[in-house]
């Protein structure tokens, strides 16, 4: 019942936030309510960091684990970096709470960044990412989100020892669409992506190298449909199991040279499709049968709620852990 309790805590926090923001004449945001403070130093713990991208002031939440990675002989090593992107209308603090990637940070000794999307001119619109042919004010105003993420990588790598062979991008919903876009445009910098309830909305996706991908999607997702068309078509015609994948993953299966895969039923609601041996980039897909537009979490694999039968965070971490740039 841990996940259920977390949902209750979040619901109570949201209710309290609405009351406090409505009752106060002061500026109010979720980061402040969660006790996060802005910092210019990069030390152990969690803080908000500001960064300028062109004329825009941007920000992200950063979690630095309590321990540094070490080799078997005890030598200190550089941190892998994971960037986790929130969905539409949300914040970095929101996806930090939802995904619990801080636990991955501590377990694997990775640095994790949770960027904040923009709300358009005057901050009057839901936060979004400029992921291609979609996505709210960020798309309409041509916000340079790729530049923002590149600035984040540079700022963190300047301040902390970062293993540039192991930079990962994870996204939910609109953040998942942005993760696809990053893989299209920054493939030489990204070791792998993970997408939860997202789709490929880049109409000119042309990665210079293959990018390993793990994706999770509910079949009853009404916000980003499981079978939503990809804006870039597969490079080659697919057959067999690859042809049964959602359109966005068919593109990556084609790009990565994934032809031989296997599909099994993991539990009552979860099907797993793996392509562990591709020409240039691994692909894994988990279909949550009856799942909705959410970040699945494991409460009970036999639960009647499909979204409570899969440990997305842990599975994503294990996939990313074995990926690195050549």
Brief summary of the model shown:
The chain has nine helices and ten strands. The protein is an alpha/beta fold.
Notable characteristics:
326 residues, alpha/beta, Rossmann fold, 10-stranded mixed beta sheet, 9 helices, 10 strands, 29% helix, disordered N terminus
SSE layout:
Blueprint (H helix, E strand, L loop, with lengths): L1 H22 L6 H4 L11 E9 L2 E9 L14 E7 L6 H8 L1 H8 L2 E5 L20 H5 L4 H15 L2 E11 L1 H12 L6 E5 L16 E6 L28 H10 L5 E4 L4 E6 L7 E6 L23 H10 L5
How would you explain this protein's 3D organization?
- The chain has 326 residues and is α/β, with parallel strands linked by helices.
- It has 2 domains: 1-35; 38-321, 3-Layer(aba) Sandwich (Rossmann fold).
- The protein is built from 9 helices and 10 strands.
- The protein has a 10-stranded mixed sheet with strand order 1-2-4-3-5-6-7-10-9-8, sandwiched between helices.
- Helix 7 (174-185) links the parallel strand 5 and strand 6.
- Could you tell me the radius of gyration in angstroms? 19 Å
Major β-sheet annotation:
10 strands, mixed
Derived structural class: alpha/beta
Q: In sequence order, what are the helices and strands, one letter per element?
A: HHEEEHHEHHEHEEHEEEH
| Largest sheet strand order | 1-2-4-3-5-6-7-10-9-8
The count of β-strands is: 10
Number of domains: 2
Uncertain runs are 1-33
Within CATH, the superfamily of the largest domain carries the name Alpha/Beta hydrolase fold, catalytic domain
Q: How big a fraction of the residues is strand?
A: 15-25%
CATH architecture of the largest domain: 3-Layer(aba) Sandwich
What fold name stands as the CATH topology of the largest domain? Rossmann fold
Identify the quaternary structure here: single chain
Query: What is the highest CATH level, the class of the largest domain?
Result: Alpha Beta
**Shape category:** globular
Through-space gap between termini:
41 Å
Bin the helical content: 25-40%
Average pLDDT across residues? 90
